[in-house]
Structure formats: C-alpha cells, structure tokens
Amino acid sequence: MSRGTYDEDMRRMEARESAISERLQNQERSNDALTKENVQLSEALEDMRLDRDELASDVEKLNRAREILTGHLRDRDSQVEELSQVSDTYRGLVADLQSEVTSGQIEIEQLRDGIRLNLPQSILFPSGSVDLDPRGEVVLRKVSGRLISNDYRIEVRGHSDDRRLVRDLAMRFGTNWELAAARAASVVRLFEAEGIDGARMTAVSYGRFAPTAGNETPEGRARNRRIEIRLIPNTRQGSDGAGAGETAGAGSVTGDS
C-alpha cells in the first residue's frame, strides 16, 4: 500500500468516526430532549390526575350539599304543610266552639307544636264525679268531629287544684292524681266511642302540679280544675311538658279575646 493510499484511508476513517461521533452526540441530545419531555409529560399527567381528584372531591361535596339542601327543603315543605293543617284545624275548632269560646267556657290556643284546648271541670263533670255531664259530652263531640278526619296525636291531661279530696272522694280515688286521671280517661273513652282510633290517644294526670292560676281563691282553683287537650301533629316525636309549647302568636282565643 502506498503512502498516499494509506493517508486517504485514514482520512476516510477519521471522517466516518467524526460522523458517527456527531450522530451519537445528536442521539444523546435527542434522548435528553425526549427524557426531559417525558418528565414534563409525567408532571403534566400528575397535575391532571390531581386536578381530576380535586374536581371529583368538589363534585362529591356539591352532591352532599345538594342532598342536604334537598332535605332542608323537604323539611320546610313538611313544616309548611303541617302549619297549614294546624291552622285549618284551629280555625275549625274556633268556629265549631264559637259559643263556648265567646262565653269564656273554653280556651283554644295555637302553639308551636300543635293546639291546646282548656276545658274547665265545671262544663265537663258534675262536682266530685268522673262521669261526663251531658253539656260536656256535647262539647267533646264537637271536638271529636273535627279530629276524626286527621291524624293528630291527642293527649288528654287531667288537672286539679291543690285541695285535698273530701272523705267520700278520697275513699274512692285516693288523691287528686287519681281523680284527674279518671276524668282524662273518661274524655278519651268518649273520643274512642266517637270513632277516634285509641292508638292516637293518651290520658295522663298532672294532678295539682301544673296550675294556670293561684289556688288561693275559688276562682283560681276553678281554673286549675280542668281538662287540657293537646293536639300534636303526627310528625312531632313527642310532646313537651305542661308548661312548654308557648303560644306561637298564630292564634289564641278565650272568652276575653
């Protein structure tokens, strides 16, 4: 091989090596760019995943909020319907018992939790008796006629003054507790006889412990000897005590009104 040929071969070899080296460098640069792009894509994908998870969480929160709002609206609709029913019943009772209300014999109040009727013992029972007076039966039948068509829970509460029972009554009933309870039961029995489901009704006695007036005067004691009828919408879970359920301002009718 001549010197000239050798030199030419070396130049061609060096040129090939230079080209290969350049291609390798280009490939490395391309690989670096692809690696960088892959990292960027991975980061973008992670950001999208986080955004998706955050969006899903937001959607879940919105769905929960919507369910709560729907529940509140349902409750509000139920309360409006209940109040409308109570108001209709209240107005109906006032109309049915207008003469008794006007004369001061009966008090009717619309409360936050239903309706309360106060009926003095004097129009329901003869003195010392648990048997309903004919006048009292007439009044109670007016009340029962208004209640048959709805589903109110009916709580009949017997109340008394603080005086001890006379001998004959004490021998029969023991104390005012029992006398008031027996009178409340008489009212419930009449309601049941008039067609009201007994499962809707409760008879209880408060004895002398829930007065509406002082017991120092005959007038006060007469006010305390009474039957209280509570009408409680069936959506309510329970009634309150004798002193609760204050007037809501929607209505109160007495003989002095």
Which properties best describe this structure?
60s Ribosomal Protein L30, Chain: A; rod-shaped; 257 residues; alpha+beta; single chain
**CA-atom Rg in angstroms:** 43 Å
Helix % is 55-70%
Structural class: alpha+beta
- Superfamily at the CATH H level of the domain at 97-253? OmpA-like domain
Count of strand segments: 6
Average pLDDT score: 86
The CATH class assignment of the domain at 97-253 is Alpha Beta
Widest sheet: strand ordering:
4-3-5-2-1-6
- Can you write the helix and strand succession as a string? HHEEHHEHHEHEE
Q: At CATH's second level, what is the architecture of the domain at 97-253? A: 2-Layer Sandwich
Distance between the termini: 138 Å
Number of contiguous helices? 7
What is the fold-level CATH name, i.e. the topology of the domain at 97-253?
Answer: 60s Ribosomal Protein L30, Chain: A
Provide a quick synopsis of the model:
With 257 residues, the chain is α+β, with helices and mostly antiparallel strands. It has helices at 3-96, 98-102, 121-124, 134-147, 167-173, 176-193, 218-224; strands spanning 107-111, 114-120, 153-159, 201-207, 226-232, 247-253.
Task: Report on the architecture of this protein.
Helices cover 58% and strands 16% of the residues. Mean pLDDT is 86; it is low at 237-257. The protein has helices at residues 3-96, 98-102, 121-124, 134-147, 167-173, 176-193, 218-224; strands at 107-111, 114-120, 153-159, 201-207, 226-232, 247-253. α1 runs antiparallel to α4. The chain has a domain at 97-253: 60s Ribosomal Protein L30, Chain: A (2-Layer Sandwich). The chain is rod-shaped and about 155 Å long. With 257 residues, it is an alpha+beta fold.
